[in-house]
Amino acid sequence: MNTPQDDSPRLLNFRATSFLISAAKISQCPDDSGGEVAFAGRSNAGKSSAINCLTGNKKLARTSKTPGRTQLLNFFSLSEDCRLVDLPGYGFAKVPEKIKRDWNRLMENYLKYRQSLRGLILLMDCRHPLQPFDQQMLAWAMAAQMPTHILLTKSDKMKKGPAKANLLAVSSEIEVYGGLVSVQLFSAEKNIGLSELTETLNFWLTT
Description:
Structural class: alpha/beta
Number of strands: 7
Number of helices: 5
Shape: globular
Order of helices and strands: EEHEEHEHEHEH
Distance between the termini: 28 Å
Oligomer: single chain
Largest sheet: 7 strands, mixed
Strand order of the largest sheet: 1-3-4-2-5-6-7
Helix content: 25-40%
């Protein structure tokens, strides 16, 4: 007697995430196989906090009171063939212009040429979304036809009404990208939107 095949998607165990490697250039990245999702955002958008919240490990991705600490592509292993990537923060860091240009070139090339990249998580402070650098990142992602999911972070810092209004405003702005860009409210401190984020990541990495 044949056993019915289970067609339910494989769910990733984000709690099992571990640091893999840091890369200063594309040639230092892990083998371009399997699947990975990258996290990008301004240096004060809460990127590291979001990764730590997702994985349940407060020490996994470094957080700092000095924006711009992440200057490398930091890879984290989710499973044998799935990874998370913490991209360099942009826009706010007090670093020389040459370093900023190098970061921009690194991120643009990564988004354009990385074959295993399944999607981009783009973090923006809920109180100040769609800044010029955010728009630049969206432009790069759209040029690469990369699915992008926006996290409007620190949503707990706003009252529900204004936060919802900002969500609706961003939703309206991204309609021009068709179904390639989505958006949600998120708070690492209050675990707001965590289940929606994990659902998106599971879909990108297991289907």
